[in-house]
Each structure stands twice: as C-alpha cells, then as structure tokens.
Amino acid sequence: MQYIIILFINFLFCQEAIYFNGQRAKDLIDYQCSFGPRYPGSKGHQQFADSLKVFLDRLVDMNIVYQDTIFSPISNKKVQITNMLARFNPRASNRIMFLAHWDTREFADKDENIDFRKRPVLGANDGASGVSVLMTLAEMLSDNPPINIGVDLLFLDAEDMGTYGDPDSWGLGTKSFSKHLKKPYPRYAVCLDMIADKDQEFLIEGFSYRYAPDIVRKVWNLANDLGYNQFKYVLGQSIIDDHYVLFKNTGIPSIDIIDFQYPNSSKNYWHTIEDTPDKCSAKSLEAVGTVIATLIYNEDK
Ligand SMILES: [Zn+2]
C-alpha cells in the first residue's frame, strides 16, 4: 500500500522534461563572444546584430527589427541600438514572452584591477548566456512549433549601459522597445540574465516576487519538480533588469531568472574582464533551458 502511495505522489509531482541541448547553448555563447565585446558603437555590436538577424529570419515566423538612437549614460554618446522580436505563431492572442539582453558592458568597471576598468566586458554570462538559451529555443520551436499559443523571443539591446545608483539608466533597450509593442500583450514574460554560472543558484528576485508572484511560483515549482533544486525558495535582492523595465512600461507581469552571485559570494566576475566563456557551463544552461522549454510546451497543451 505504501508503495502505491509513493508512486501516486511521484506521478503527481513528476514533470516530463523536454530535452534541451545545453552544449548547443554553450556553443552559442562561444559564437557570440567570437564577435568580441558587443556594446553599442563597437564593431562586434554591429556584426553580431547582423548575424542574429540572419539566424532568426531563417527560423521564426516573424522577426521584427526595431532600431533607435539613444543617449548612452556610460559613454555620454549617441548610439544606435537594435531590438529584435522573434515571433512564433504571431496571430495567437494567447502569448508568452522570453527575453534576454544581447549587448555587453562597455567598461569593466567592477574589475579588481583598476587598470582594467576602462576595458570592455566580453559578456559571456552577462549577455550571451540568456541569448544563447533564446537562440537554442528558436531552433527548437522552429522544429516543433507551438500550436495553441504564441511565443515571443525578445532580444534586447542597451540593457547594460547604466550608471550605478541611477535606476533609470538601465534597460534602455527595453524602454525603447516598450513604445512599439502592440496588443495583445503576452500573458507574462520571463527574463534570462546571468544564467550560465558553473556554481548555479537562483534566489527569487525581489521585483519578480512583488509584481508577478504567480509566475515566480509557476516557474520555481516546475524547476523543482524537474529536480533543479538550484531554484531556491529564498527571496533575494531586487535587481533593476529588463523584466522590471518591461513591467513598468507595459504592465506585463515579468520575472527575472538571474544568478547575481557570479561565481559565488567570495569572488566576482560580474562587470569584470573575467566574464569569459570558460566561466560558463553547458550543464547550467541545460537546467534553465529545460525548465523554459518544458514551461513552453506545458502552456501549449
Ligand atoms: Zn551587466
């Protein structure tokens, strides 16, 4: 009898995972970093934008490119930025959205070594990691398109040109994009940022919990059902990221999956020249990618 009960409980709580290729995502981090730093105004920025457009045009039902000229708080210059909205099933009114920023930070201003603080960040984890999962999802969704729902993959520019202590100077790509987004809006949005850390641990980001607690619960419960207990039921700090800017400008309930301790509490690669592909892990990408892919196909049932 006891055996049957355990089986029943397992049946209730076990989710069938959708396969996600973490190594493919890791290769796509390497690919992005092969363009060099990708901050607005840099050669790598222009070249990767062109390459991403070709990549998405081939895979998705509709890829909309939004360009804008904005003022960069970090460099005090006017720069051209490019957001891309890659849509599957564009006519569906029942939609969900996933977003990540593809730009990288112009200055490694958190580097321990003062001589390196004027150098650009390569952005393997801070930038390329979230984008690598979105690009892999684009390939998966192209092979197995959603039927009942629409899926939007939003590739954002100009997240990372802010100045510390000024919340309005971050997520400028999202701010620009939000002006163009037409209804019907997605039901919710999930932002992926700094997700490839080898020492992976996701606390619940503060704004996500405040503005979209149901979505946090849905994603964290799914992750834990799939066995990814690195999604901790612990409230972490509030972080101004694209999900916050999207929510503030559109009202779309948005959460952030972010591992802000990179790699851990005693060492920091964030906004340093150490943010390189060797710090990123295919296994970590596989965990996040599996959660998101399973979420998408669950919603499509
Ligand atoms: Zn950053």
List keywords for this structure.
about 300 residues; alpha/beta; Aminopeptidase; six-stranded mixed sheet; two-stranded parallel ribbon; 10 strands; globular; disordered N terminus; binds zinc ion
Walk me through what this model shows.
The chain has 301 residues and is α/β, with parallel strands linked by helices. It has a single domain (2-299), classed as 3-Layer(aba) Sandwich (Aminopeptidase). 38% of the residues lie in helices and 20% in strands. A 6-stranded mixed β-sheet has the order 1-2-4-3-5-8, sandwiched between helices. The longest helix is centred in the middle third of the chain and has 20 residues, at 124-143. It is globular. Zinc ion binds at residues 105, 126, 160, 271.
Quick rundown:
By secondary structure, the chain is α/β, with parallel strands linked by helices. It has helices at residues 2-13, 22-33, 43-59, 124-143, 172-178, 206-211, 213-225, 242-250, 282-299, and strands at 62-72, 77-88, 95-101, 150-156, 189-193, 202-204, 231-235, 254-258, 263-264, 267-268.
